Every structure is written in C-alpha cells, then in structure tokens.
Amino acid sequence: MPSRKPRKSASRRKPSARRTRVRAPRVGFVSLGCPKALVDSERIITKLRSEGYEVAPTYQAADLVVVNTCGFIDSAVDESLEAIGEALAENGRVLVTGCLGARPERIRERHPQVLSITGPHAYEDVVRAVHTHLPPRHDPFVDLVPPQGVRLTPRHYAYLKISEGCNNRCSFCIIPAMRGRLASRPIDDVMREAERLVDAGVKELLVISQDTSAYGADLHYRKASWRGEEYASRFIDLARALGTLEAWIRLHYVYPYPHVDAVIELMAEGRVLPYLDIPFQHGSPSVLKRMRRPAHAEDTLERIRCWRRGCPELTIRSTFIVGFPGETEAEFEELLAWIDEAELDRVGCFKYSPVEGARANALPDHIPAQLQDERYQRFMERAAAISVKHLARRVGERTRVLVDKVEDGIAIARTQADAPEIDGVVRIDPPGSLRAGDWADVVITAADAYDLTARLAGAS
Fold first, then answer.
1. Where are the beta strands (DSSP E) in 239-345?
2. What confidence score (pLDDT) does residue 346 get?
C-alpha cells in the first residue's frame, strides 16, 4: 500500500514562456486501509482529474486534503483519526471520507474542524464537497485523464472492484452497516474497465469486493454482451470472461460456496491464476457458528482436497481470528488440527478485537489479551512450519515471475502463488537488466519461511 504521507515531487515543470496557465486547484490524498479503499480513492482522483484538479505531492502543496479512512477494527479507527489529525496539522483544510465516515460523531468528537465528512463509496458526495471548498478553475489547457483512469498502484498491476457491500451478517463485522448490502456492477461494465486496464499495460488484475463469490446475486445474474459474447453477471461467467484477457487474474475475498468449485477447472486450464483467497476465519464449527459465518457447516477440508485433485498447482491463502469470545482451549486445538490437515499455503492471523457496533461484543467470555497473544504465537508457529515445508519443495523449480521493483541490486518479484503486499516475494540476485513490470523466468535457489531466492534462468 502507498504511504499515507504525500511524497515530494522529484522535479518541477517550468512555466511556458508563451502563455500563462491558470494554476489548477490541488488536492492531496491520504488513503488508508484495504485495496477496496484504494480503488475508491482512484475513482475520486479520476473524477477530479477529469475536471482539471491536480493531485498534490505534499501536504504543503495541497489546497486541501482528502483522507480516505478505514474503520473496520479499533486499531484502524485509531490510525484513521491520527491521519486526520496529521493532515489538519500539516495543511488545515481536510475532507474525510471512507468507512469511518459512516460514524461522523467519532470524527467530530476528536477533530471538529474537518470541513466535510462522507461515508464509504460516496464518490459524488466527495466530489461535491471538493467543489464546495475548492471550486474548479477554468483552464482550456488542462490535459484529459488517461482512459483507464488515475491509479495508485504500480503500472503493471491493478485492483478490479466488482461490487460494493455485503449480505452476510458475521457477528464480528460491521461492513454491511457501513457499506450496505451487496451492489454488483453489471458484467459488461466490469469487463470494459478490465479491458482498458490491460490495454494500458496492466499485467495482473486483482479481483476484489466484500464477497466475490456472491457477485451478481443482487442483479439476479443479469446477462450482458461483451466482445460479441453473452455473459451473466455471475462469479463463474466473470472468471471466464476475465480469463480471455492477456493478464494474470487473481481472485480475492472468495467465500467457499458450492458454486466456487466450478472455477477450479478454469484454473487447471490456465485461464485464471490457480489462487484462491478465502477468509475461513476458524476451524472449529462451534466458533464459526458464533461468528455467524456463511457456509460454516460445509466440510471445507473435503472441498480443499477436491480442489487440489482438480488443480494440483492451486495456492490457497486465508486469514484467521484467534481469541474470539468464548474460544476454549479445545476449540483452539480444533483450529490447529484444521490447519495441519488443510496445509494452506499462505496464512494471516488476527487477534480478535472488539469493533464498535458489532454483535460479537455482547458475547460472553472475552479472551484475555495475554491468552490471545499466546494463541496467536502458537498459531503462527504452526502456519510457518507448513509454509517452510511447502516452499522448500520449490527449490530447484523453474518458474515465471512478475517483477514489482528493483532496489539495492536485487529484483523483487512474485510467482503466481503470491499476491502483492500480503504474500511472499522472490528475490532475484543478480537482477540483470530487469525492471518493474517485467516478466522473468527464474530458477528457485533457496527458501525461508515465507520468501524465495532465485537466479535468472540461463544464468550460471
């Protein structure tokens, strides 16, 4: 994720000697939280750029600052409030949007001087607020934005948001209250954006939403035409359509509903990446019931075995919560046994944290912090041991990677098994002439708990 502090510009364009250009109003952006918030910021910036606004590289260069907040857990709320305070101290003119904006009283209590507060995915409201506090200036020489819009990610990968909101009612989560019920984009709209991104040089599309596998349910799987073919606004049809593009297609935030099984065939055929990001959250049926997780009664271990039989190259990543209210030692041991059996490739873990407004707050027997810490350490040790075993098998393998950056004489890249920012990396030493966005064929030479080391294929 980009730093929330605007970066200083490396150079300055000299004014034209033949005409005096009206200085465009400048807006600074601070984007916090998950990739979905990043996409929200991209949409707002794209709209403002199309109206002649510029994105300021520093607080001091901005005429006002927009802070796109996260408010999912208490630590994210604290970070958002601190970011708002920093923007006020450095600039003084601040608009707030995003998830925390759904609770404006929390923001006003701490920072009453903010100019405006809007909630999540309220793009037009944010733009109207910018118009109010920083009216656009007419400039006939303003350049148009590129057709793929303004993006905050590197040029070679992009997040593709297919829907907003969520119909699930997990007891620890308040996203439905913040972002509303599922609201899917029609498939032709999604595919036109995906095509523009690939045409602009994007080599990897990361499909995101609150519940990717529920895509289109609210539209009753409405059909639409793209490239002369008819597709339904449905998870599997979207995967098929995206699979026709010349790019890596990576699926995030997939709930293990039964219809997800159909995408495994596309993965085995190489049409989408053999990668599933599924937030299982726990391995104990009784804990999952208290969490009110969808599909908690499914035999997920058998599903995972079937997926791997159909696509042996499949990588599964997931996140888990330890220390959920009422979690007994026996239930935690069930989770460890589940992890041992599932042998997931990539695993993240969070210690349960109360979220204002979540129903889980009312559950009895909250777990003391010290016990949460102890269970977190035990869980991560178990997950790391599995990762060590999986990555050690890859030493000597030849594979294709996508280079994210080159720094300090080493190229940092990723295999198809690794999503940016959250999974492992491949360090290529020496990097030869590689640059960010390049494909490279490498041979894996070493592995640790999470990352790989490689040399360029053909290099001695």
1. 248-251, 275-277, 315-322
2. 94
